[in-house]
Records
---
Amino acid sequence: MDDEKLKNQIGANIAIYRKRAGLTQAGLAAKLNYSDKAVSKWERGESVPDVMTLVSLAEQLNVTVNDLLRDPEALPERTGVVQQAMGQVVEKTLKRKANKNIILGLSSVLVWFVALLIFVVLSTLSIPYSELAFFYAVPINAIVLLSLRSAWRDFRWNRALISVIMWGFLLALFVTFLILLDFNAWKIFLLGIPGQAAILLWFRLFRPAKRKEDGNG
């Protein structure tokens, strides 16, 4: 199958499943963080989305990636070589994504295991306030997740994770003052207001323009 035929085939499938899902081009574009012009070009066969966008498209349209690649008139056993190759690439991409999620999950489990271990050891030794370990585990867990995602150049959750780090540490400090010093330092949370505003403005400043107005390919 030549490139043009494949582009037209993918575009036709996107249009079919988009309409079946009751979405406009603009509605689908908003879900994918693309422009409606990009979706229009995909459907006209002028360009094709990349592999990760194909995965996102399939999720939004509640179909499989193979559904987007398949020729509606072809029998299953006559699936083209290009579609098979694309299917293999998508499978590897999804597997890599699943592996990263497992690593993130294991990292969180490790953080909370350490917090639990500290709590058990301190409480066994009758050292007071051992439960503080759980409060500090919240921002530490967020730091670990932020570090891993940044290393993978996946910045989608950075704003939320940085917010969790800030508010988590403020909460931990508040509880520390309350328990250790019997001092209600509720005003410490006021620091979070300009801090949160700074986070929102920072990410708005460096937010990329609407992704790839002309799509890919």
---
Amino acid sequence: MRSPLADDIRPKSLEEVVGQRHLLAPGAVLRRLIESGAEANMVFYGPSGTGKTTIANIIARRTQKTLYRLNATTASLQDIKDVIADVGTLMAPGGVLLYLDEIQYFNKKQQQSLLEFMENGKLTLIASTTENPYFYVYAALLSRSTVFEFKSVPPEEAEPAVRRALEIQREKTGLSIEWEEGVPRQIATSCGGDVRKAINAVELLCQAAAPNQGRIILTSKDALQVAQRSAMRYDRGGDAMYDAASALMKSLRGSDPDAALHYLARFLEAGDLVTPCRRLLCSASEDVGMAYPQAVAIVKACVDTAMQLGLPEAQLPLAQAAILLTTAPKSNSVVEGIGQARADVRAGRTGDVPRQLQNVHADTTGFDHQQHYLYPHNFTGHWVDQQYLPDALVGTKYYQWGDNKTEQAAKAYWEKIKGREL
């Protein structure tokens, strides 16, 4: 049976690894650890296809320890016990190097079972995960390990791997494989930073091409179909989703309509309407707020319309909402005001509700049967000076007028009514 192209092309040395220059460039910490043969417990965190398993294999070849591989999606506690049982035996006289893939799928008990042997040095752990290890990896295990973050491989660094895969595929098939100019870059770009996905696309492209007199011509059109939609990373409920949601929110706040439309498009292509709708609704109050209060109603209407339409038509009202929010004037006076007010409440700075604001039924009990409430609508300008905050908070300012046209107009209005500077 023919081996997969991704296995044939897997780097055997650090010089062959593409990407991760921040970890593997000369002088980088991880490279120095590998070259020195240090036996350190590590957690590799990052997207799929970025070299985590490859680096673990290279480390294994540089150690004198027996290499064991487990995948946490299928491994059990008994599998861990079987590995540990070999520690100190003829099966692993120099100790065990355990490569544990997808460690986030191990529960606390399974992770704890490794601690004793990590501490006495009989087991060296290299764990990999696509999720944030500080959320999914047991704290005691993290404290005994060093976390290295792997990043998506940019197209210019993935392209050499694609070209090497094409050459290997040519050798494997014995056919004359040629390709249109731009095909390697197209595949490298479409893989979305996942080198393994790019290599698989090369293999599929070669298999799908029809030989003509012993020659295979790989076209840009076929490459586009093979690699279509693969550049997008999205995992509902995972780091990629939350990163995209954060980027959308910050683009709205940063008044960048192009970036906002880009991140919105990621959700639309993934078929997720709920997440961007929540971000758009939140931004209307958090980032635009009192600078353009009507934004809440408009965005709500856009969101309701999108949910009624469904995809693909939902893209139009959501794009309208994104453009509105990015181009609207900004004010965070709402979030600052309620944030400070809640901080005081949590700190116990409350006090009794002033007598004149208490429920009218309070007039039927107690020593003072008069509420003394002044009804603002009975006074000129629909305002009268009276105390509203509890005694302990008199003079506290939570709301600060924004410097936008809308809030400054409201400030001027109330300064005129109240006869003092606000």
